[in-house]
Amino acid sequence: MRILHQSQGFTTFEQAYEMAEKSNQPVLYSKTMEVESIDPLQFYEAGYSIFNGSRSFWQDPKSELVFAGAGSAKTFYIKEEERFDSLSVQWKSYLKNAVIEKGKAWTGPVILGGFSFDPKKKKSVEWSAFEQGYFQLPAFMLTVDQYGKTFLTMNVECKKGDHAVQVWNQMQKQKTALLNKSVSSLKDVNVLAIKEFDPEEWKSSLTSVVGQISRGEVEKVVLARKVKVTFDDQKRSDSVLEKLRDDQSESFIFSFESGDSCFIGATPERLIKKHQQQVLSTCLAGSIARGKTVEEDQQFGNELLNDEKNLGEHEIVVRMISKSLEDLCSELTVPDQPVLMKMRDIQHLYTPVEGMTARSSILEFVKELHPTPALGGTPTSEAMQIIREEEEMDRGFYAAPVGWLNAEGDGEFAVAIRSGLLSGKHAYLYAGCGVVKDSDAEGEYQETLIKLRPMVRAVGGTIS
Ligand SMILES: C=C(O[C@@H]1C=C(C(=O)O)C=C[C@H]1O)C(=O)O
Ligand SMILES: [Mg+2]
User: One GO BP annotation here (predicted)?
Assistant: First the structure.
């Protein structure tokens, strides 16, 4: 990897081509520059006409960092079950042949995407575009950082035989279009139907899992279900992102397009953030509705903070995450008590965990942590086997790690809950709940309804 610290423009681009010619291997040319401030969602929408099907979006809570990607210079389709190691190896090896110009910007080349929840589960058709892992190195990526500075990164794979001047000119043209295009308003798309798949059967399998728990076979299992939404026309990810950004600014907002499909959502749950030696993870489990008045909301919150069933659900997650991170970190801070995290429709028990590490890649943490008992269960392998058997559906990327990673191995991954898959005139939305010994089927079913609400609303529907 060569990192150039001055803006040398076309000359370095030509050098990347010379390297490609000589080595007979593709060479990544990546250039980051500061640009005038532009709304990242406008950039994403401007990418629709040329890059529909290969756009990406990421916004962290309180939008301290936003990425919008248009087009893909390189797509990593991960097919192996060992998906975290596989991406790590491929990304490192890809960066060996790279010319990176980034001046003072810290971003440079970044890949965005996600992994499957369970590679052992049989894949359903709707998830076929995503494999076991799907990451894009955007051809054009806009970054808005915590200071409100805006950067554009252009990535292009230089290949032997390509015409450098033509590629350069096309890049400049596309860049101008993305940064200047005014966006036309999106067409209204209506929800025709929302279908639940046999809730009674789901409740009865939940009851049978409670039985397994009370017999001591497992301690906790997270069971999920999906609903299918039908629209009168193709639902665009742009409009869903817009709604999520209005309603769920406390959450991670993401979208990853793969051809006609798009995995999209707004999740409150951080899996891991790594910035140099600092790491941060989140234990999030235990839920209650928001109150209708301030008093009722506080009362619900207090109830949750003192509820044995929910505290139990939460404690299992804290135990596992602390233990996993202990092996990877030198110092670990774990508060004794959870606090409340409140979103528009729901409140959760929340414990942040912080540590210091000497490890170089965030993917080592993802591999160690996934699946946490917030989405899988405990003991992990028994819980995963029960999920495989009891859940009819393929979770795909739901409840799995999604996020981004840079050339230094730093980045951030969230757990993709409160999410769905857009696919033409349909959307599949997912929600689950932690089943423990005191769970009752109707209560857990109601909890999944609350958890579905943000995504149902974002696609333009309503659910009870
Ligand atoms: C599984 C989901 O959420 C998880 C389950 C929770 C619970 O059961 O209390 C709370 C937060 C998440 O860890 C989901 O939203 O789909
Ligand atoms: Mg719960």
Answer: salicylic acid biosynthetic process
CA distances from 30 to 99, 136, 177, 407 (A): 6, 14, 19, 11
Main-chain dihedrals φ then ψ at residue 58, nearest 5 degrees: -150, 130
**Mind listing the domains of the chain with CATH numbers?**
2-180 (no CATH), 191-458 (3.60.120.10)
Query: How many of the other CB atoms lie within 10 Å of CB of 404?
Result: 25
Annotation marks residue 269 as catalytic:
yes
Question: Is the pLDDT reported for residue 203 higher than 50?
Answer: yes
Beta strands, E only, 237-364: 252-258, 261-267, 270-275, 278-289, 329-333, 339-342, 346-357
* CA pair distance 86, 80, nearest whole angstrom: 7
Check: CB of residue 351 under 8 Å from CB of residue 335: yes
Cis-peptide, bond into residue 352, ω within 30° of zero: no
pTM of the prediction?
0.96
Is 367 an active-site residue? no
| Helix, strand, coil shares, percent, the chain, to 5 | 35, 35, 30
Cα–Cα distance measured from residue 368 to residue 363, given in angstroms and rounded to the nearest whole number:
8
Q: Is the CB of 321 under 6 A from ligand 1?
A: no
Q: Tell whether ligand 1 has an atom less than 6 A from the beta carbon of residue 431.
A: yes
Distance CA 182, CA 314 (A): 46
| 394-439 pLDDT, tens digit each | 999 999 999 999 999 999 999 999 999 999 999 999 999 999 999 9
Helix (H, G, I), strand (E, B) or coil at 270: strand
DSSP state of 187: P
Q: Nearest Cα to 118, choosing from 269, 199, 216, 224?
A: 224
- pLDDT grade for 6, boundaries at 50, 70 and 90: very low
Residue with tokens 């350069």: 168
Residue 9: is its pLDDT beyond 70?
Answer: no
Which residues have their alpha-adjacent CB atom under 5 A from ion ligand 2?
A: 287, 433-434
pLDDT surpassing 90 at residue 454: yes
For CA atoms 455, 388, 385, 389, give the dihedral sign: positive
DSSP state of 10: H
Measured CA to CA, the distance from residue 291 to residue 137 in angstroms comes to: 42
| Ligand 1 pocket member 286 (CB < 6 A) | yes
